[in-house]
């Protein structure tokens, strides 16, 4: 089952709305997680946990450290999903 970048982005938008009360229209690929969406380090951990639940795969902390934008999150999820196939 191949998931498109758009489908991943929609799921990420839902996670941001449900968990961080961030409106989906603010969650664009270019949006910076910490500067524009006001996430902090605890939110980043929560996000990593939600992505693990979404993909069924464990996210290595060192992989998630380089994530800065929503596009980076999409790429991280894509790589987790590819590992599953």
Automatic annotation (TrEMBL):
GO biological process: lipid A biosynthetic process
GO molecular function term, any single one: acyl carrier activity
Pfam families: PP-binding
Post-translational modification (record): 4'-phosphopantetheine is transferred from CoA to a specific serine of apo-ACP by AcpS. This modification is essential for activity because fatty acids are bound in thioester linkage to the sulfhydryl of the prosthetic group.
Segments traversing the membrane: none
Subcellular location: Cytoplasm
InterPro entries: ACP, ACP-like_sf, PP-bd_ACP
Functional summary from the UniProt entry: Carrier of the growing fatty acid chain in fatty acid biosynthesis.
Sequence similarity: Belongs to the acyl carrier protein (ACP) family.
Protein name: Acyl carrier protein
């Amino acid at each position: 089952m191949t998931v498109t970048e758009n489908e991943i982005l929609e799921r990420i938008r839902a996670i941001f709305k449900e968990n961080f009360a961030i409106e989906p229209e603010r969650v664009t690929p270019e949006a910076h997680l910490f500067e524009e969406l006001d996430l902090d380090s605890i939110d980043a951990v929560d996000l990593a946990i939600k992505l693990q639940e979404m993909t069924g795969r464990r996210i290595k902390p060192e992989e998630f450290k380089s994530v800065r934008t929503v596009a980076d999150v999409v790429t991280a999820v894509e790589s987790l999903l590819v590992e599953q196939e």
